[in-house]
Every structure is written in structure tokens, then in C-alpha cells.
Records
---
Amino acid sequence: MNDTHRMSDGAAPVIEVRGLSKRYGEVTALSGLDLVVPRGATYGLLGPNGAGKTTAIRMLLRIIEPDAGQIRLFGGSLSQGALDRIGYLPEERGLYKRMRVRRLLTFMASLKGMSARDAAPRITAWLERLGLGDRGEARLQELSKGNQQKIQFVSAVLHEPELVILDEPFSGLDVINQQVLKEIVLDLKRQGRTIVFCTHMIEQAEKTCDHVCILSRGEKVVDGPISDVRRNHGGEYVAIGLEQWSREAVDAVRGSRMVAALREEGHEIAVTLRPAADAQALLEELLGMGVRLRRFERVEPSLEQIFLERVGVGAAAGLTVEPEVAHV
Amino acid sequence: MSRTFTVIRREFTEMVRTKAFLIGTILGPVIMVGFFALQIVLAQSGGGERQVVVVDATGQGLGERVAAALESRSGAESRTQFTTEVLVLGDEDPETLRAGFQERIEADSLDGYLWLPAGAVDGETVVYEGKNATNIGELERIRGAVQVAVQGTRLSAAGIDAARVAEALRPVPFDARKTGAQAASGTPIALYILTYILGFAVYMVVILYGNAVMRGVLEEKRDRVVEVVVSSIRATQLMAGKVIGIGAAGLVQIAIWIGFAAAVLMKGEAIAARFGTAMPELPAVPLSVGLIFGFFFLAGFFLYAGMYAAMGAIATTDQEAQQLQFPVIMLLLPGIMMMTPVLNDPDGAIAVAGSLIPFTAPIVMPMRAVVTGIPPLQLTGSILIVVLTMLVLLWTSAKIYRIGILSTGKRASLGEVWRWLRTA
């Protein structure tokens, strides 16, 4: 880690937001958001498209002004110094296409307060690491789209930020670059940096993040460490694997009085039990009906289940559980 | 400030590295030199020989007098050398003669013929026919020769010595010098050229570099660069850096041109001598004129560049940007339209109004400074109005810019821009 980074405010949360609100005309983009991102966390800011994620991020980065609310970064105000400690990969990506790679990266680093001299060896190291060592003098527009994306990642992390904000990081990426970005993120995580994932791909965030905040229609639905979110959500969940899938067997499960909700996931069925229902009793009931099972397991709820139950299916439109593969 | 400087440096270096800048920088002086060279070449052109038959039907020797006047080049601006043959009309059939002349003209052994009818001295129309009848300069020479000859014949008939009359009517050489302690002094033509150069310099720089600002903003927005940049610095810093950086590139280009012009002028005598002409007299320009030009040049650029940046932020395509810059040019054009009235009456109502309207002042004020001493109150008023307008426009543009650069999809309506202004 860069030894010039100010770590004196070590105990303070990296991001602390109180009552953050933003309206665009008649539309409420964000309403009274409270948020705390602890240092070193991998934090998922989740929600369907239009939930207010990007609006929140843009206010954190001073790109737009909030109508109300307070933002504290690294225990201090939203200052230029604080912004210099953040790396940002926006959803809408792009670079100066006519600039040469090294000049561009030097420019991006100097916007973060780095001198050209300090940036030079880091640029060399990153280009080497990504197999672009010989393309430093090429213009951006001469690179393939995939390589342009790599340069974009480098521009976000070149100044070794303490906080990295990635807005829909995997959208628009080809498979190779998804892997490159995952490795960069893992590296950052190992170095103890705080990472904020802003995404509508909830399943992927679930695998990567240790903290989450789920937004819907500009309001927070739930937040905290994932384990707490699951534990506090309550209810019992069962994953059922049928030995042989049939409509009758699925209907038999659905027909049970103990089942509150059911969702088919391929050949498996995710079941939410009614309050006070017993999973053991459900197993006996199904066996009694002659349903043959391959798997019957009590599980913790997925974030998606929690989200669906909190806000309903309508609000969840636009939420993706499978990673999007790029259309590059 | 250091971040703004980072943007200034990027805008400047990227601008001066473009082919357009290189070509413009080289082409500017080339066009300048080419323009003046063309003037010299044109002034020297038309120096051919013309073979003309003068048909004299007057019986008063008019043909000989016309021929003598035509062959003499004294006082003539045209370099054409006329050779004449005089034919005193006797019994020949005029139509046969004309047909013969036409044949010779077709065969290129004759350029034309001048027909002096019997009543030429009394006012009958003299006719010239020839293939050079579209050359205004040569026709003027022929008309002048006939005029002199006819007048001489009429004077002789009245018993007056034509040579003495000509001597009495010889034109008086006349020259003029513009004087004034505060304004520039020199020959009218030199001052005329200088005022136009200054006026058009402001106009061209605003149009060319204002456009560069607008295209730069649009490109950042269209290529989605802007969000990353404004996550590191304020949008206003980005706009300021862009305007100053591109403006600085424009200044460098103009400095190169001025340097080139100065170098040419230092060698002016030698260059002029090579073209067989004399170096024109240069005007004397006091420092105050240079300072006024410098101020209004910069203020004019910033005043308009802010508006161009806002237009770039509102537009989403090149075509939209071109349409949006139309109202900006409409604000600038009256300044160009005022150039002639301002030169004719630099202290008149139009000139004073043009100085106090912030959109025309950057063109009008440097012109006035060249040709008149601007009253201090007008100068101060103009500077204040321009600076205030510039600040208000930059502030307004920055508000539009802040939101415009992040809004994609379709071009914002006037209502939306108004909402941006209120909410930003």
C-alpha cells in the first residue's frame, strides 16, 4: 500500500452516509439513505435498475449534489483529499480515445494528485501485468475494445486507492476481462482495501461481498453483514432436489400447508416455510405422498429471496441473478 | 488549482498535437503571404501588347491624336502597351473594312478597332470592338485617349492651346496621414487593413477555438469520459481547464503568426524589392492599442467559449452542436457588420453602442482604439460590461455544463436547461 496514504483515521468507517436524498423533478431517486461501509469491507450496493445505486455513488463522489443528507468519507468531510483516496470504475465507461496509453494514464493519475514521476513505474508495472507492455505509446483507439477496458481498470486503481467503487463492473465485459477484473478485485481485497460493488447482479455480489445494502425505488430495504442480514431475516428455508422432475411432484410440494412460497430453480425447488412450520414434518409429508427426493436440506435464505420477500416481485423487476455476459 | 492546471495542460498539449493545429499554424502564414503576393502579382499583371486600328472618319486628324494619346503611357495605371495604325476613312466601304478587321482579329493579328465617326468631335458615339472589350482597365485607357483627343480638337477649334490647358488641369498629388496621440497613426490604407485584421482576429479565434471547446465537451460526453474525470475534480474545474487550455493553444498559434509577420516585415524592404515594388508604410501603433486589443481579445474568447462549452454539454451529436452554435454566432455577427460604420465614424452612435454591447465590444473596441482616442468613461464602461457579462455567462454556462455533461440520450429542451439552471 502507498505509504503516503493517510491512515490516521483508521477506526472510522470509510463511508458514512446519513439521510441522503435526491429528487429529479417529480422522481425521487434516493430517499433518506443511511449507510455505513466499514474499513476493509467488500460491500455490495444492490438493487434493480433505477433503485438509486448510481445516484448514491455519484453523490459520494461529489459528481452531483444531494438535496439533503450528510456524507463523511474516511471519517472526514467530502473533500478533494478524500476523493483522491477513491478509485472509481463507472458503469458508463470511456477514455480519451485519441490519447496515447501512457499519457492518458499519467493524466488520470495526476487528477488524483500523483506526480508523473510517481505514476511512471506503476504504469509500466500495470501494463506489463496485463500484457500491454508494448502498447504504452499506442493511441487508445488503436487498441482492441478488450484492451481498452483493461486500461480503464488500471486508470481506476493506478493511484492505489483505499476505497474502490465499482459500478456494474462486469457489465459489458468479455469473459477474459471479467476474469482480469476479478483478479484485480481479489488483489485489492487481500491488500485490505475497501471495495464497494454497485450491481443488479445479486447472486454474484452474494458470492463476493461480506456486507450488503439492498435498495429498491430509492429506499433502503436491508443492510449489514450478509450473515446478519440472513439471520435477522427469520423464517425457514428448504432446498429440495427431486429424484425425477415432474409437474405433479412440484405441485405436491406447492400444495403442502407448510409451504409459504416456492420457487423453481432448474431441477431444484427453493421453499419458504410458513411460520411455525416444521421442515421435518414437510419431509415426512412428501415421502408419504410418494415424492422421491435426491436432496432435502434446510438452508439460509439467499439475498434474492430476502429481497423478493421484503419488496415483492414487482419491485424486483430488473434484478439479475445470473452474471451478465458481455456483448462486446 | 493544480488539478485545473492538469486539465489545462492536457487540453493544450492534445490541441497543439493535432494535425488541424499544425496545418492551421503553417497554413495561416502561407495564406497571409499568398494573399499579399497575389495582390502584388495582380498589380503587375495585364502588361501585354495590344494592336489597335483607329479608323478616323472625322477628317479633322482626330485619329492621329487618339493614337498618340493611346501609345503614351504617362499617368496610366494599366501596364498595357498599345500599338496603333491609323486609317483615315476615304471611299472605302465601312462594312467591307469591318469584315476585314474581324478576320484579322480572328487570325490574332489584331486586337480591336476604334471607329471615330464623322461627328465624333460633336458628340457622336465612338465605338470600340475587339476581343479585349471585357478588360475594364484597357477600355478605360482607350476611352481616356479619345476624351483627351476630342477635348484637344475642341479646344483648338476654339483657339485655345490644348497643352496649356492640360498643364493647368494637371492633378494635384494628394496623400493623407491619420494622426492622434492615443490612436495609431499612419496611412489610411494601412490603418484600414490593421483594423480589419484586429476585428477579424477576434472573430476567427472565437469561432475556431470556441468550436474546439464545444467539440471537446461533446466528445468527452459522447465517449463517456466525463464521469471518471468529474469523480476526481469538480465539473467547473474541468470546464475552466478546457476553456483555458484550448484558449492558450489559440494564443500560441496567433503568437506564431505574429512572429512570422514580424519576421516578414523586418525583411519587407528586400522582399518588396524582389517583386519590383516598394514596401508600404507601416502604421505606428501605441502600446495602449495593443493592450486594449489584448484585453478584448481574451475577454471575447472567454465570453463566447463559456457559451460554446454549455452548447457542447446540451448537445448529444455533432449535428445538434452545429445547430446550437447558430445563436452564438448570431451574437457575434453584428460586431462584424459594424466594422465599416465604425471605421467611417469611430466616435459615432453605432461605434459607441457597439462598444457598450458586450457581444460586439470585443470586435468594435480594438477597431476604435486603432482609429480614435476612446473617451476613458466609454473604455471603462465597456470593460466593466464585458467583464460582468463574461462572469455571468461563465457562471451560467458552468451550471448548464455540470448537469449537461452527465445527461445522455436526447438533446435537452429549453425547459430542461432552465430546470438545470435552477437546480444546479
---
Amino acid sequence: MERVEFISREADFNADTGIRTETMMLNMGPQHPATHGVLRVVLYLDGETVVKAVPYIGYLHRGIEKLCEHITYQQCLPYTDRMDYLASICNNIGYILTVEKLLGIEDAIPERAKTAEVILFELGRIESHLVGIGTNALDLGAMSAFLYCFKERERIYDILETVCGARLTTSYPRVGGLPLDLPDDFEEKVRNFLKIFPGTLAEVDSLLTRNRIWIDRTKGIATISAEDAIDLGLTGPALRGSGVPYDVRKAMPYLGYENYDFEVPVAYEGDAYSRFLCRMEEMRQSLRIIEQGINNLPDGPYAADLPDVVLPEKELTYTRMESLIRHFVLVYEGFKPPAGEVQHAVENPKGELSYYLISDGTGKPYRMRVRGPSFVNMQALPNMVKGRLLADVIAAIGSLDIVLGEIDR
Amino acid sequence: MSFDVDSLIEAVNSAYPGAVKERIEYRGETTLIIDKDTISGVCGRLKASFGFTFLADLTAVDYLEIRTPRYEVVYHVHRFGPEIDENIRLRLKAEVDGQNPKIDSVTHIWSGADWLEREVYDMFGIVFTGHPDLRRILMPEDYEPFPLRKDFDVRDREASKRSFERALREGGD
């Protein structure tokens, strides 16, 4: 329940009108449906105008960075999909790429695995943007757009389920490639999605993009200038909505993104509507990338030929003693990257996600640091809502598209 | 890439003698070890003269019983290139003593450093002098230990229990 308190020390008595005014403190969250998790924002209100907003985070803190110091590199993987659980596959792939960079085996990864990872990464982006747009619309009262978005998200979950057996917490690729070859119906399911999704996207587009109420609630709301956005370290649609064309896929390409033909959408107003437009266009660009990926999905091995890192095939584990021993050693001790440190960034749906791994030559990371986009983007909220109406706080939080699992880690 | 790290080091060293102690190249990434006392000046210089307008990350590492200045504060600074694929990323490191760890804040250079420095303070107990609002961010306000220090035992629940019991006492209804 929201608790309202009156602060008498800021009370002000106007002798002319005889009205006593005071700033009201409103505690929004941590259990509030529009905070997308367990975010608490303390709002100081003058009537309905926000004087000051102070976010409090940490209600979902699990200490993932500390936990990862005590387990092997491969065991860290399931923790990563519990950060941004709306795009867990993107977190997984980002982590795997960082470990591969630490091991120095990027060049050994087969093309089939890389292309499959690109397809899954872009599916994860669409999945996250669908929730971002859907819940933003839901918070502002547009229920139908939310239902269309979630219907399509189920189809992506079905594809993920055929690939890795899980829908939400995927924990999918492995260091060195894929754990198993892609299922036979993967291509058909993705092609089916490519056929159906543009129709749904057009429906969401017609429900929102030129919807008068939606425009009134988002245009000119929660604005942030390009200079402020860079200064605060915003990334993703929050930065591109302010006119800065920074996208890690173009700036520091990974997984062979430089070979794909796609655009980085940019909007210039810096408001909630601009960020919405960026997300809509990014989904169309993701479809282009998925189409190019599925058309060029090569045959061949799905995991690197690196016995020190990759587990042997299941059949060999059961039939050959050497493979069984190798399996045991890899599971119990893990592979041991040479001492050193790397940082690797990927363009997550919400912005730049980067992992910073330090190896001391043992099978466990000495330090794992996660720079989540939501954590940094969240800092923009007090600037965005200052001097605006209380109802705009909901629009601002929704348009930033935060996930508390990633903010608190 | 038309960016020359050597000239950057030279320019920084002429403005702040002895600021860049070492340059390390590993896996295609450049790391500069910066003298802790000059970190604020060096970062300001990197932003003003070399266009590193974007602070990608700020964190710390605890090298308990491995190195003598126990902590390292790590900065990842980023420069947007004139072309979209001409981006430069540098890693800066500053060594901080284990006794009374303290370093200058960079919040006046990049305001995005605010929460990142608060998190480092929360997790390692490193104090950032000049930070406008240095409070705990993820852990409870009255929590005493610093969890990401290497001498913190994850099985020790006493500190969490104290915070929880205090919250129960003061929570009332």
C-alpha cells in the first residue's frame, strides 16, 4: 500500500489567500504494478507536480557477482539469465562471448553456432521490446496493445523451448558453441515467425503510433537531451531516442554483426514517444537480421573442436573411457583461462550490457562484474520527472524499460 | 583506427607528470595504470581534449593478499568516433590502499558515475571524496560489512539478521 506523509518543515502559509501549502511525500513501490518489479521511488509532490524523485533499489539484490567468484565459469551461466529475465538469451550469449574472449578462442567458434546465436539474440531483442512496449502501454491504460504483444512473445518462447528446452531461463549456448545441434524444426519455426510477426507489428503500430491518447501521454514527456544522455551514460533506446546513434553491434561488432545489413534507428526528440519509435523500428531491423541469418545458416559443426573447453558428445561419454574422464574433469574443475582480464560489451535490448572478467588462472573467475544497462539508465529518472506531473512518472519508468533483476543483480 | 594511444599518454604525462604508470595490451584491449592522486585530472583531460565523453563502467577489484595496494578502481571510458565504427574504449586503473581506502570522485566529469561509485562504496567500502551523495545503494543502510571484499564470508548471516531485526522493530504496523 502506498503511504502518504506530510512534511510540516516545508510548510508554507500564504497570508494573502489564507491557504497553508506543504510538500507531500509519496512512497511509490516497492510493490507497485507500474514499477516493473521491486523499485521504490520516493516522490516529493507539490500538488500533482513532482518536486523531487529519489529512487531506492536493492530489493532484489542476490549478490550474483559474489556468487560467481565461487563457481566455475560454466556454472555462472544460469545466474546470467536471472538478471534481465525478459531477454535472458541475450545475457547468456553476452556472458559466453566474454568467456570466449578471455580464453582467446573466438576464431575457433564455428559459423553455424555464431549464426544461430545471432538469430536467438535478435529474437531475444524482439521479445524484450514487446514486453517494454506492451507494459508501457498497459501502464498508460492501453490494454489491447499489451495483449497483442504478449501473444507474439509466446511464439518466441515456443522457438526458445524447441532450441533449449526452457522458455524463460534459457541458459543456452555453451562456451565454444552450442550444446547440441539445432532441432530439425528450428528453421521452419523461425520462418513461420518471420511470416506472422510483421502482421502483429502492424497491428501494434496501428494501435499506438498514431493513437491520439498515446501521443498525448508520451510526446514531450520524460525528455532528456543528447548531452545529458551521454553524460549520464544512458545506452540503448534511451540514448538513441535522444539522437545519439550508438549501437554496440555497429560500434564494436561481435558474432559477425558487421556482415549483416541493418540500420540503427535514431529519434531526436528524447521523449518517451521517441524511445517507443526506436523500439518499434528496432524490431523491424531485428526481423531483417533474423531473415538474413536463417537464409545463410550454414551446415557443419555446431561446437568448436577444443577438447580442453567443450564437453565431449554424450554418445562418446557413454562409450569411451577417455571421453568420460574428460567429461568429469571439465565438470568438476572447469577449464582454466590464462591469467588476465577482458571486458566485452553486447547490445542488449535495453542498452549496453558488458561483462568484465578477471581470471587468476584457476577454474573460477577471480572477479565478475556486470554492467547492466537498466542500472545506469535508471539514474535518468529523477531528471526526467522533475517538474512534471505524477502521472508522467509512470510513463517515464515504462519508457526507460527497466528490469529490476538486472538493476539489483 | 586513427587513434594513437601513445600521443594520449604523452599529453597526459606532460600535464600530470608520472600519471600514467604503465600500459598493458591484452586481447586487443588497452589498459592504463593511472596514479591514484591524479585520477580526477586525467579523466577530466580525457573528456575535454580527447572526446571520452562516455563512462561505460566503473568498478573495483579486491586483491587481498595478492598485491600490496589492495584495491584497484577500474574505469572503462569510451569515445564515440566520427564514424559509427570508429569507437575507442580504454580501461583506466587506479590502485587504492587497503587501509582507509579513498579516491577522488569523477562525478563532476561524468554524472553517470554517481550510482556506479555508490555501488563500489557499498560493495568495497572505498570512499570517493567529492561524491555528492555517498550512501549505500544495494545493501540496507545499516549493513556493516562490505560484501565484495575477499575477506567477506557469504555464509555469515549475522549482519543481515541485525538489519532485518532492526527493520522489524522500526517497521511498526
